[in-house]
Automatic annotation (TrEMBL):
Keyword Nucleotide-binding annotated: no
Protein name stated in the entry: Uncharacterized protein
Domain of life: Bacteria
Membrane spanning stretches: 12-33, 66-86, 98-122, 142-166, 175-191, 222-240, 260-278, 298-316, 322-340, 392-410, 416-433
Keywords from the named record: Membrane, Transmembrane, Transmembrane helix
Length: 762
């Protein structure tokens, strides 16, 4: 039957609200006052604003990750309503906290329902609900934004599954309502966070299996429950894969799973700075990423020994009385097992021989582990499991289940023991509230500071709807926020999955503009502007990833940083302040300013570069008639010569596409031939490359065909038509392939000819 316990009096409503208010206070989601995080909040607010810019029914970001619409990899369930609030005029930082509070309210309701179900006590249920929402598995994932909501909502998801799976089919209205609620939970889950969607699917599968063994009418259960179960999860997966445009993300190596597996010592000994009580009594340990694999979320979020112990006794107490309790215990044990990752770890740290760098701190080679757990078979081969690279996150489902079993254990005990136990657990899991509050206020005020110092300035310097590239590019969290709120459109995008999706659609020259800026990259930067790929290039004097998390730098931030965090940011991440970055780039920016056909606005936090079309056309007129035409990365006069079908200028050559055109100025009559020096991309063992050169000479079509089976430099002579002022040559390349197609290099460009020069001959 559908469980209906929720009928408290007005005073009890007030107490429920009070417990919920404490929960959102600790989670820093009070609108207009605090913000739970900064970097991910900027990322999400940018998506919300961009989606809302596209209209009520739009679900894609249109202002960053251009030219293609950007599908948010996770978090649409929160970002979509956030965008509606921003559209109504609510400040984005307030909209973020408000939406998070609303989802946390739903999470609180789910926890309340489970608490009432398992304790049979509506008076104590608000305590347990508050306890769930202040556990570090929820609060310490605030920096991961939507993951935090996904974890917090696990009680709601599982409640929906419980109501549908364990409900009798006698009441048709309740059945259809439960099925609809189950579908809503699946859709919210998959569009909120992939990790917790898989956990929800696993928990629901175990519930379905246990309920099947209990069911009296097996066939009725199969048709009424199992069929709907399959339809619900299949539909959710189909809609999500259609939304992101692919069936799945690529799997990570096992070393990643291993590095992010939970160390059993983390379950027993909390990390310093997480709980005030354990810090006070000295039962906490300082942990640094220089010593442990993964990041701080692995060891800050997973302390759970009180729940595991009480939960085990709760299962033992009711193991023969309740099938559902046994089901929960199996889910908890399985989740804990998966959280270990492929290898067992207990006080496992990096040895002196381990090369400690930011590039490999996420990975843990097998030789550093104690022994295998055996779950690598699932992590490597099972769809869904093979992309859950942060293995420790299975602890979210484990902690939720053992939280449930803890409630069950306390049931039937005297009131003083029940209330005393839950109050004790609340004290144990209570964070350092003053420190937490300072972080929330600092996050909120940092957004205000960003709006004042950065967003408003960019609005003034870059016209609305202009296309922009931030150079150098990377995982540019800031682009998500700056583009929609400053009113321009950016190629850059934040989020590794979103960046991976955007890259194939970018101008090919942009691929070369990652990493430190140097003279070669300045040439590529100029080409990006000359080719009309972008209207403006912005060189930021702040870190587009880490400054979004710690605005603006360790030495100039509103964030309260510990000594360890300050040291890590400044000396390990090399997060330096704008004045230092500006000084380091002074020579490069001066070189750009020296070019007469470029406009440069050099501000405190960035430089904006654009083309002066009048001066550039004058430069072209002076340079384009000079022969020989030697291809170099800085010979920008070729921009007027290379017509359609060419990639960017490189050192000594330029690649054509499979079909290209070149417009050559006709010289005086002392020369009769254009001579092209070129090569092709040929890999031994493949079909020959056929190149056709075609031009109109004296009204007659001249076509020259070359069949090439090597990578040597070749020449071809094209007759000159002296009746023309400029002559067009068409180049067609059959069997053009990209290096990635032939497994030679990751370059995805289909390469035609590599043109080195054009000179004249008699």
């Amino acid at each position: 039957m559908l469980v209906k316990y929720f009928n408290p009096s007005i005073n009890k409503y007030f107490f429920i609200f009070f417990c919920f208010f404490v929960a959102i206070l600790i989670n820093n989601t009070i609108p207009y006052i605090s913000l739970p995080t900064l970097g991910q909040a900027l990322w999400a607010m940018g998506y919300a604003k961009s989606i809302s810019n596209g209209g009520l029914l739009n679900v894609y970001a249109l202002d960053f990750g251009i030219p293609q619409p950007a599908a948010i990899a996770f978090g649409l369930s929160a970002v979509l309503p956030m965008g509606w609030l921003i559209k109504l005029g609510i400040m984005p930082e307030a909209a973020y906290s408000l939406i998070f509070s609303l989802w946390l309210a739903l999470a609180f309701c789910g926890a309340y329902k489970f608490s009432v179900l398992l304790s049979k006590n509506i008076n104590i249920a608000p305590f347990y609900s508050l306890l769930w929402l202040i556990t570090p598995i929820v609060t310490k994932h605030a920096a991961y934004s939507m993951l935090m909501l996904g974890i917090a909502l696990l009680p709601f998801y599982c409640w929906c599954a419980f109501v549908f799976i364990f409900q009798e089919n006698n009441n048709r209205r309740d059945y259809f309502f439960a099925a609809a609620l189950f579908l809503v939970a699946a859709l919210v889950s998959i569009f909120m966070d992939g990790y917790t969607f898989v956990m929800f699917a696993v928990a629901s599968s175990f519930m379905l299996l246990f309920a099947y063994f209990k069911a009296k009418g097996k066939m009725s259960f199969i048709y009424g429950k199992m069929t709907v179960f399959l339809i619900v999860f299949s539909l959710a997966y189909f809609l999500y894969s259609h939304f992101i445009g692919k069936s799945s993300y690529h799997a990570e190596p096992l070393d990643f799973f291993r590095g992010w597996g939970v160390d059993l010592s983390f379950l027993i000994i909390p990390s310093r700075g997480v709980f005030w009580f354990f810090d006070y009594i000295g039962w906490s340990k300082q942990r640094l990423f220089t010593e442990y694999f993964g990041d701080s979320s692995v060891w800050d979020t997973t302390f759970s020994i009180p729940f595991i112990l009480f939960g085990f006794f709760g299962w033992w107490k009711f193991r023969n009385k309740s099938l559902f309790i046994s089901c929960l215990f199996v889910i908890g044990v399985f989740s804990l097992y998966m959280a270990l990752g492929p290898s067992f770890k207990f006080f496992s740290t990096k040895t002196d021989s381990y090369v400690n760098s930011l590039a490999n701190t996420m990975l843990m080679p097998e030789k550093y582990a104690l022994f295998p757990t055996g779950n690598s078979v699932l992590s490597e081969n099972l769809p869904g499991f093979n992309v859950m690279r942060a293995s420790y996150r299975w602890m979210a489902l484990a902690i939720f289940v053992f939280w449930c079993l803890t409630i069950s254990f306390m049931k039937e005990k005297r009131n003083i023991i029940q209330y005393g136990s839950v109050v004790l657990l609340l004290i144990l899991f209570l964070p350092n509230i003053p420190g937490t509050w300072k972080n929330g206020r600092a996050n909120y005020n940092s957004v205000l500071d960003i709006n004042k110092k950065l967003v408003s300035e960019l609005k003034n310097d870059i016209p609305k709807d202009s296309s922009v590239a931030f150079i150098p590019w990377g995982n540019d969290f800031f682009a998500n926020y700056l583009a929609p709120f400053s009113g321009f459109r950016s190629f850059n995008i934040g989020g590794d999955k979103n960046l991976e999706a955007a890259l194939p659609h970018w101008p090919s020259v942009m691929v070369n503009l990652q990493g430190e800026i140097n003279q070669n990259k300045i040439n590529y930067l100029i080409q990006l502007l000359l080719n009309k790929n972008v209207d403006y290039v912005v060189i930021p004097y702040f870190n587009m990833l880490w400054s979004a998390h710690y605005w603006v730098c360790p030495s100039d931030t509103l964030m309260p940083l510990s000594d360890e965090t300050y040291f890590s940011l400044k000396y390990e991440l090399k997060l330096i302040c704008p004045y230092e970055i500006k000084e380091n780039l002074k020579g490069n920016v001066s070189a750009i300013k020296a070019l007469p056909y470029l406009n440069v606005l050099d501000r405190k936090l960035y430089a904006v570069i654009s083309i002066n079309s009048v001066l550039f056309n004058e430069y072209i007129r002076k340079k384009s008639n000079d022969y020989p035409l030697n291809v170099e990365s800085d010979n920008f006069a070729l921009n007027d010569v290379l017509e359609k079908g060419w990639y960017y200028l490189e050192a000594g050559h330029v690649w054509s596409k499979y079909n290209a055109k070149i417009k050559l100025s006709v010289p005086n009559e002392s020369n009769d031939l254009f001579v092209f020096r070129y090569s092709v991309f040929y890999v031994k063992g493949n079909d020959p490359i056929t190149v056709e050169f075609e031009s109109i000479v004296k009204g007659r079509r001249v076509k020259i065909t070359k069949i090439i089976k090597d990578n040597e430099v070749h020449t071809v002579e094209i007759p000159i038509d002296h009746d023309l002022t400029s002559q067009l040559v068409d180049i067609k390349v059959s069997n053009a392939k990209s290096p990635s197609e032939l497994n030679v290099a990751p370059d995805t460009r289909k390469l035609g000819i590599s043109l080195e020069s054009v000179h004249l001959s008699n």
